[in-house]
Amino acid sequence: MGVRKIGLIAFSVVAVVLGSLQIGSKPANAEAAGEGTVDLRLMETTDIHVHLANYDYYQDKETNEFGLAMTATLIKQARSQVNNSMLFDNGDLIQGNPLGDYIAQKGLAEGEVHPVYKAMNLLDYDAGNIGNHEFNYGIDYLKEAINDANFPYVNANVYYDDGDDDPTNDQPFFEPYKILPKQVVDANGNSHTIQVGVIGFVPPQIMQWDKANLEGEVITKDIYETAQKYIPEMKKQGADIIVAVPHSGLGSVELKEREENATYNLTEIEGIDAILFGHAHEVFPGDTFKGIPGVDLEKGTINGVPSVEAGFWGNHLGIIDLKLQKNGDSWEVIDSRAKVQAIYDDNTGEALVEPDQEILDAISDDHQATLDYIRSEVGETTAPIYSYFALVKDDPSVQIVSDAQKWYTEQAVQGTEYEGLPILSAAAPFKAGGRGGAGYYTYIPEGPIAIKNVADLYVYPNTLEVVKLNGKQVREWLEMAAGQFNQIDSNASEEQALVNDDFPTYNFDVIDGVTYQIDVTEPTRYSRNGELIHPDSHRIVNLQYNGQPVVDEQEFLVATNNYRASGGGNFPNIDGSQIVLSPQAENRQVVIDYIQQNGTIDPSADDNWSFAPISGNPLLTFQSSPDARQFIQENENITYQGIGTDGFARYKIDLSEAKEKVSLSSIKQDITDYEHSGDIDHPLARTLINKLNQAEHQLNKGHNDQAVKKMEGFLKHLNNKAMAKFITQEAKESLNHSVEVLLEDWSSN
Fold it and tell me: Could you tell me which residue ranges the 5'-Nucleotidase C-terminal domain spans (predicted)?
């Protein structure tokens, strides 16, 4: 294990002879010659996303959990431990937090150095790769930004769009690879030059995710096929060893065309000697990857190739230690070990290193300018806004974004051919734990709202797009989003996790403007990749618009973002061809404008979605922040269960009670819906609501007995024979049942 062929020796022979060697040992021929054995350390940072200082701009406070200033300390320590080392970055550098947005909004003047490179140039990187988020601000901005780097950039699978259908004449947009002459010292102090080839890749899906910025400018090609093309060429050009730097997660064991996460496939290509991967915000080696064929977590290899993925935001440094043996004119990797080093202890909450002051000093002006920017107020909120329960109930942090998108779209369609079509709005909880960790939630206290808070609500620099869909397509959109949940066995007695933690929370779209329920006892209709895997399953039930069932041929406009509208997330029926309006307004700016227009906002959710009630009483749990405990509402179906894993807390949710959850407000809403649908005539509806208002008045005064009497009067009026001609039997039975449940609840409390 850990042995790869380099030069002329067959892989199988090397594996047999050298498979048992450990880092630090020397083969016999090296002992005899006294030279030619070199230890080379490769280090990786990835997915920094402009987190340079150890500072959380959303919460406006220092943090121990991330920041390149912290990673820099690890880099310097790791470098000092060895004679030979190289440092690489995997990409997703210039976008990802308010500092990145601030610099992009003001622009980079000619000669001005982006703060990312003010920091990174101090750390002597050897090369960098391009990540997918590098394209978020456009190609011109990307070129201007990376022009400041004192190290080369590589990317092999992005090409100029030459407008023809001949792939043989396509020209690379970036330099596909570099061969870096690395001066090294062997075990006996002798100097050598090793030609280190480095090649980079980015997900081909950037053409969907950043279509507006890239269409007509570039094209992308398959990562695996591109590697097959260039690796032999790099060997011919003199590369002694080849380091692949794919901005791509591990992915599937099976080979798939244009795979987003293709690292596993790259390990099967002869000639790649080490892989520094990223994009998925995961840590390799790590327990997440346990049990995958070909993965050796102790050695840190995948199919024998030493590999590392260094988390995100600088929270880890990736390290691969290679032992190289000279064999004639070539070099062989005779052993390896990969590991990650953390800057923060998840268990104790303590920093493991101090931030590097040189890095902090280099970016101090940009950091302060960002603080001034994010502290600008735009409005007020009448209650706290948080996303702690965004995956288990309709959520105010998502609601505000959705309301803002709908508000903007209503104005944008005026005077167009689409004016008058029903407008829906799709938004997702971007910060809801998951792979971001137990601290990755939105929290905005009651009171003033500043730009930092809006950035906390909407963390990506997406632009608003409007798609035109029919009712069937809207339903399938929601079916895909419902993959956020595991399938629940209503008859099981053991604990069941409700939330599928492998499903990205940014793909859990809530569509406002319609009402619906999610039946989690059904299997998910689509896989995470958008494949229809259970054609007979339908999790989305009771989908309605204005109280009426949504039919397949109904037409809707749906406000969303450019990522989703262009096919991001592999949602069915959404590939960019449905876009009808592209106002080029940033979603975050739309939220700012909406708050400024209203001045003061009420962050309550409209409860347009819920879980379908589950028969039986299964024990369903989910994880959220420990801070969520203080926000559990009285009589809510969520209860705190104790400490969870990785800093999370455990919560129980009782979906069996959902069907019995009745309030005066819900009964009022039912009556209003029945009035709109024609099931109750207007005069009767007004009378019934007035009686509910009277009961509510008595309840607010603490006169519970009087409130009960008012509800008994409600029932008497509802069931008066003379009223039968003003209400359908179905509506009457439903309201009777609701009031009975409510009165029973009052009596038990």
Answer: 379-572
The tokens describing 365, both together, are 């002006």
**In this structure, what are the phi and psi dihedrals at residue 696, rounded to the nearest 5 degrees?**
-65, -40
DSSP-based three-state secondary structure for 358: helix
Among 195, 183, 305, 181, which Cα is nearest to 239's? 195
The residues that bridge with 611 in the sheet, in sequence order, are: 518
pTM of the full predicted structure? 0.71
Q: Helix or strand or coil: residue 468?
A: strand
Distance CA 100, CA 137 (A): 10
Residue type, 247: H
For 701-727, b where at least 16 C-beta lie within 10 A, e where not — what string?
A: eeeeeebbebbeebeeebeeeebeebb
Contact 481, 496 (CB under 8 A): no
Tell whether omega for the bond before 306 is within 30 degrees of 0, i.e. cis: no
Amino acid at site 307? S
Q: What is the mean pLDDT of the segment spanning 420-432?
A: 97
Residue 659 has pLDDT above 90, yes or no: no
Bridge partners, 464 (sequence order): 561
At 13, list the tokens: 């022979």
Question: How many Cα atoms within 13 Å fall on the side-chain side of residue 598?
Answer: 19
Residue 501's H or E segment, with its range, is none
Q: Give pLDDT tens digits for 695-710.
A: 988 888 888 889 899 9
- Quote the pLDDT of residue 4: 35
Give the tens place of pLDDT for each residue, 266-316. 999 999 999 999 999 999 999 989 999 999 999 999 999 999 999 999 999
Between the alpha carbon of residue 242 and those of residues 27, 128, 272, 312, 324, the distances in Å are 22, 14, 5, 24, 12
pLDDT value of residue 110: 87
457-505: pLDDT as tens digits: 999 888 899 999 999 999 999 999 999 999 999 999 999 999 999 999 9
Which amino acid belongs to residue 298? Answer: E
pLDDT given for residue 643 in this prediction = 93
The DSSP output letter for 163 is S
3-state helix, strand, coil in the chain (%, to 5): 35, 25, 40
Dist CA 245 CA 95 (whole Å):
19
Token code pair at residue 531 = 């494949």
Looking at residues 332-342, what average pLDDT do you find?
Answer: 97
Helix (H, G, I), strand (E, B) or coil at 559: strand
Is 594:404 a contact under the CB 8 Å cutoff?
yes
Max Cα separation, the chain? 109
Beta-bridged to residue 305, according to DSSP, are 302
Q: What is the mean pLDDT of the chain?
A: 91
Where are the strands (E) in 27-176, listed by range?
37-45, 55-56, 61-62, 85-89, 127-129, 153-154, 158-160
Burial of 733 (0-12, 13-18, 19+ CB in 10 A): exposed
Instruction: Indicate the SS3 state at residue 435.
Output: helix
Q: Please state the three-class secondary structure of 671-739 as a single string.
A: HHHHHHHCCECHHHHHHHHHHHHHHHHHHHCCCHHHHHHHHHHHHHHHCCHHHHHHECHHHHHHHHHHH
Q: Look at residue 120 in the predicted model and tell me its pLDDT.
A: 98
CA-CA distance, 357 to 70, in Å (whole number)? 9
